[in-house]
């Protein structure tokens, strides 16, 4: 039998040995030298080998993964174009959730064929036999300008994200892989092109239903681009108009049913999830599956919610309101974290080019600090406390003013951080506000108040700074619960230290509240905060007693864990300042818990019942919450419902001694701060 009839080698078997030719050509090369060409790099060579790690094998294509090449000018039906545009939006939304451009936007192959889609450079043979159901303009006009608008939207987002207010790789991926995002083309030019595409659709011979589908997608893309190109600070009326229009379009598009193209449709070739093998990537990327279209709509809806909330915040010139809005989004388990772009934009609005909220000088923050703390402007406070005019005293006063504006601005911007980074910032903020407390103590001897009201104000100034420090400390501990950072043995200690912080905070509130103007917004807000913190303290003490049996480690090990967990409270800088009460003293933990358990009147169930009653009474209060009053009310009601559940805890110390802590459900709990109670 002829061997050729058995073995059919690809390409035939007429090979010639070229070893000697290669050896002769390489005679002048040194050992381990490489010859590089313009179109073939070492990365390309390495990508030809299968390593076994999906991220490292991004350049490897198996036979089953091979696909026909995309013909960018191949005509398609309007429904196929709509499907591509919807999936392109899903790519953009997935990039905003933290994936890379290579994994998302760049998988749309038309991004890489924009020059081929230019109608000015297309040969006549492409339109020699036009298909009325698949006009070429759907590709060269509608699809092309939609891709251009997509890239420009990414460019405008990239510019905001790259300001350094959110962090590359931590919050977003900024690697462009040497692909243009149309940085040199103005957004206005693309907006005009979108109008041209819409005008062509209106005069086309396509069915009216298809024209409506395509026009909705062009309008949505145009609205997104208009939102992204707004100058800082954005005009709130324009933001609301654009958001309302986008919501109308989104609602209409959600009701439309765009069927997936058939298997033989060229639309499937428009996306290549393995495009990274052809791009210059800084790091290996894994192939991801794009989210379902409904999830992409939800992400876009979250974007629009963020824009609308930002416009409402810009209309509210109140530091406390901004802080309440930021805390509620962090605290509430029902609320999603805004994408990095919106969090960066919010920080830019807080302070940009020397202006706070786009229209105030930094000194405005100082005035708001006192206005929202004691109900008096800074000028009135200075008039009341009568500071000496000596040079050193004036320097001290100026130092306090500088720190107040700097730290308040940083506190506002911290609400735009991701939760772990916000927690790390608050650890530093606790020390910063204690430094302000120490400066107020230094200033007190140089004040000569003319009346009793002024003397009380001088005495209360350090407590105002302490309230800010204790707020930061409280948030550090609560965020530890929210991010599941506390080990089982650390939970009772965390609740105990939290209760001590809340106790000191309540003392400060009582002192400051006594000098605040009754009936002022500051006074009303302190009443709300006092009720909230009292309820939280009651819950913390009860949880400390309930979970105390989880402390099973030796004291030395527990102490080392305590130093590690609360290292932010042991920083050496505190040694040069006045004592920061309450001191983080683990030695008081066991005596305090023993005192609670020996109190025959103590009841964990009654503690949660008390918190339930307190939170119920603040249900209708507004304070500085402004339009976020309903959100705060919902948050309080969620705590009330949880208190109702935890009222089933033991009601006496003897029952508490027999309580099985395994009934506390921490995984998948209802509220991030407290466990659920299971039967």
From TrEMBL:
Transmembrane segments: none annotated. One of its GO terms (cellular component) is NatC complex. It is found in: Cytoplasm. It comes from the Eukaryota. Residues 341-511 form the NAA35-like TPR repeats domain. InterPro entries: NAA35-like_N, Naa35_N, TPR_NAA35. Keywords: Cytoplasm. Its main location: cytoplasm. Residues 32-191 form the NAA35-like N-terminal domain. It holds the Pfam family Mak10. Belongs to the MAK10 family. This is Mak10-domain-containing protein. It comes from Fomitopsis schrenkii (Brown rot fungus).
């Amino acid at each position: 039998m002829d061997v050729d009839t058995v073995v059919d080698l690809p390409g035939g078997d007429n090979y010639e040995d070229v070893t000697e030719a290669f050896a002769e050509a390489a005679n002048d090369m040194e050992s381990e030298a490489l010859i590089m060409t313009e179109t073939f790099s070492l990365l390309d060579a390495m990508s030809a080998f299968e390593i076994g790690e999906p991220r490292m094998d991004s350049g490897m294509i198996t036979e089953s993964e091979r696909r026909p090449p995309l013909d960018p000018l191949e005509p398609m039906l309007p429904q196929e174009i709509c499907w591509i545009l919807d999936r392109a939006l899903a790519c953009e939304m997935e990039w905003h959730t933290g994936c890379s451009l290579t994994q998302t936007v760049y998988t749309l192959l038309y991004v890489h064929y924009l020059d081929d889609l230019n109608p000015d450079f297309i040969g006549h043979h492409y339109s020699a036999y036009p298909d009325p159901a698949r006009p070429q303009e759907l590709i060269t006009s509608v699809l092309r300008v939609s891709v251009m608008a997509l890239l420009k939207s990414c460019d405008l987002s990239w510019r905001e994200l790259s300001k350094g207010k959110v962090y590359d790789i931590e919050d977003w991926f900024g690697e462009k892989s040497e692909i243009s995002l149309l940085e040199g083309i103005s957004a206005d030019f693309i907006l005009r092109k979108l109008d041209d595409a819409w005008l062509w659709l209106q005069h086309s011979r396509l069915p009216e239903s298809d024209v409506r589908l395509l026009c909705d997608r062009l309008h949505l893309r145009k609205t997104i681009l208009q939102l992204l190109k707004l100058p800082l600070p954005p005009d709130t009326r324009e933001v609301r108009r654009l958001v309302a229009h986008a919501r109308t379009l989104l609602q209409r598009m959600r009701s439309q049913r765009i069927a997936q193209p058939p298997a033989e449709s060229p639309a499937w070739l428009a996306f290549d999830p393995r495009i990274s093998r052809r791009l210059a990537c800084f790091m290996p990327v894994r192939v991801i599956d794009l989210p379902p279209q409904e999830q992409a709509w939800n992400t876009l809806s979250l974007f629009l919610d963020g824009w609308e909330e930002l416009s409402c915040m810009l209309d509210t010139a109140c530091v406390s309101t901004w802080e309440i809005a930021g805390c509620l989004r962090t605290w509430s388990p029902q609320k999603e974290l805004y994408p990095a772009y919106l969090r960066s934009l919010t920080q830019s609005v807080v302070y940009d080019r020397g202006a706070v909220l786009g229209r105030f000088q930094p000194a405005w923050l100082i005035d708001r600090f006192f206005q929202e703390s004691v109900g008096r402007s800074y000028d009135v406070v200075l008039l009341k406390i009568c500071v000496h005019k000596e040079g050193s005293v004036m320097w001290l006063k100026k130092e306090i003013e500088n720190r107040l504006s700097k730290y308040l601005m940083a506190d506002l911007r911290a609400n735009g951080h991701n939760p772990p980074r916000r927690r790390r910032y608050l650890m530093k903020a606790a020390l910063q506000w204690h430094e302000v407390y120490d400066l107020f103590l230094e200033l007190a001897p140089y004040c000569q108040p003319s009346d009793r009201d002024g003397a009380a104000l001088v005495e209360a100034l350090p407590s105002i700074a302490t309230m800010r420090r204790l707020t930061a400390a409280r948030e550090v501990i609560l965020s530890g619960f929210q991010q599941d950072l506390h080990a089982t043995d650390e939970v009772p200690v965390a609740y105990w230290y939290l209760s001590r912080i809340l106790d000191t905070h309540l003392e400060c509130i009582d002192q400051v509240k006594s000098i605040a103007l009754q009936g002022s917004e500051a006074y009303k807000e302190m009443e709300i905060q006092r009720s909230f913190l009292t309820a939280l303290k009651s819950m913390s003490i009860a949880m400390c007693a309930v979970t105390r049996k989880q402390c099973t480690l030796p004291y030395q090990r527990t102490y080392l864990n305590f130093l590690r967990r609360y290292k932010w409270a042991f920083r050496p800088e505190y040694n040069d300042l006045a004592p920061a009460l309450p001191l983080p003293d683990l030695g008081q933990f066991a005596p305090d818990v023993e005192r609670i358990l020996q109190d025959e009147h103590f009841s964990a169930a009654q503690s949660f019942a008390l918190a339930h009653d307190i939170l119920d009474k603040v249900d209708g209060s507004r304070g500085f919450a402004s339009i976020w009053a309903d959100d705060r009310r919902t948050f309080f009601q969620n705590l009330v419902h949880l208190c109702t559940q935890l009222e089933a805890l033991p009601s006496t110390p003897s029952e508490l001694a027999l309580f099985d802590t395994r009934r506390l459900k921490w995984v998948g709990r209802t509220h991030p701060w407290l466990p659920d109670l299971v039967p």
